[in-house]
Amino acid sequence: QRLDTLITNATVITAADRFVADIGIRDGRIVALGEGLAEGAGPVGETIDASGLWVMPGGIDAHCHLAQPLGDGAVMADDFASGTRSAAAGGTTTVIPFAAQFKGQSLRAAVEDYHRESDGKAMIDYAFHMIVTDPNQTVLREELPALIEEGYSSFKIYLTYDDLKLNDREVLEVLALARREGAMVMVHAENADCIAYLTELLEAQGHTAPRYHAEAHSSIAEREATHRAISLAELIDVPLLIVHVSGPQAIEQIRWAQSRGLRVYGETCPQYLMLTADDLDQDGFEGAKCVCSPPPRDPAAQQAVWEALESGVFQVFSSDHAPFRYEDDKGKKLHGEEASFSCIPNGIPGLETRLAILFSEGVVKQRIDATRFVALTATNPAKIYGLYPRKGTIAVGSDADLTLWDPEARVTVRNDDLHHAVDYTPYEGLELTGRVVMALCRGQVVARDGKPCGQAGDGQFLRCDKPTPARPRGQAKGF
Ligand code: URP
Ligand code: ZN
Ligand code: ZN
Ligand code: ZN
Q: How far apart are CA 301 and CA 275, in angstroms?
């Protein structure tokens, strides 16, 4: 049978192996992997010579926010079209953004809202995590079990933000539900009362500049909430994933839990490697560009995050892309420059730069090896969120989601060259080594030389299986 695409002489890198091989693709899937596939392959649609290139699984960005309205009226710059276009350009071929419930809303209605929002727009494949903000009896007894069964097998909960947070009792209820139904729970771990207290104190002293965001969101508040979330999950005996971990205090809690055999997973993001709280302290209001929660900390925290990536405390590396424009079309800032830090929408853009940053700063600088890079950016998220082995690896039968890397290319990050709808990148001017020269999603080329070339609507919605890593300790292992 004819191959649609044959990639030859690829240095294939998976989470486990590195080998030179040809990759045969038919109907969007990898159907052959081996030496000398060209001989005897018969007619081939397209042959791509990958000599000198590294071929890795397409990136999976398992934490990004697209078209998600905020409680205070702030709107995200990226919808599913611009967000997935930008992701593709950077080598990401699957995204898992959020379908967020607002309090009082049915969870089913929230999921339907995000489907309406994404239908026909995505350039790459996508699944949804839910955000559960209102775990009432209907949600717990009817909606969540049904939705988990239908392919929404992960959800995020918050311990902070007034319009999102759950109290400990509610956390216990949703954790118990996740245990019963086999869902993966992600938690935003910051102590809401600590942050509110510090925010009021700072604002009363007139300390309203962007840099005070980092003081209000203390690492102690992150540590406490991380420990509490772990304890609640241990009490229920259910796995848990702590998202966007910023530094050593929370890392210690996760490592402690893991050392005691608990299935606690960790995620971190580029901002915790590349930025510090000093980046919030810039001329004028510029620091607002680096406001996210938890905030970036200091160089020692960056070092701790690298070590946790290297040693396996973290399984997932995501962007937490939360796209807000710095200025509107008239050059006006969202709440004006005199607005307090507590009014700045939290989150920074990063879908397109995530892979290049970890490749350059991690693999090229030899802080992590290439197989770890693949595990963190593709294989582990696929396993943890129930998409493996369809996504996240290079194997016969898997989707042909591939990135072809020139490991030596030099690139300077410029927002002008990015494809999101945000008017800045926090990484402007950053010089990187390594570039995705081609990305394929189910065998279709979706990016070439940093430019997207797929079509909106080509991306498919993915139903997620109940993830093996979400099984409680009482059941069979397998991760
Ligand atoms: O500041 C952040 N991280 N904003 C995005 C929303 C979230 O909590 O992940
Ligand atoms: Zn969060
Ligand atoms: Zn987020
Ligand atoms: Zn405001």
A: 10
Which ligand approaches the C-alpha of residue 189 most closely?
2
Question: Does a cis peptide bond (omega within 30 degrees of 0) precede residue 294?
Answer: yes
**Residue nearest (by alpha carbon) to ligand 1 atom 2:** 347
Cα 376 from Cα 315, distance rounded (Å): 6
Distances (CA, A) of 377 to 233, 302, 397, 441: 25, 18, 20, 15
**Beta strands 18-26 and 29-34: pairing type?**
antiparallel
DSSP-derived pairing of the beta strands 316-317 and 264-268:
parallel
End-to-end CA distance of the chain: give it in Å, rounded: 35
Angle at 411 between CA 406 and CA 412, to 5 degrees: 165
Q: Which of 442, 438, 435 is nearest to 48 (CA)?
A: 438
Q: Mind listing the pLDDT tens digit for each residue in 317-330?
A: 999 999 999 998 88
| pTM summary value | 0.97
Model ipTM value: 0.91
Specify the residue for token string 């304890």.
231
* Ligand minimally distant from the alpha carbon of residue 342: 4
pLDDT (tens digit, 9 = 90+) per residue, 136-156? 999 999 999 999 999 999 999
Ligand 1 atom 5, closest CA: 347
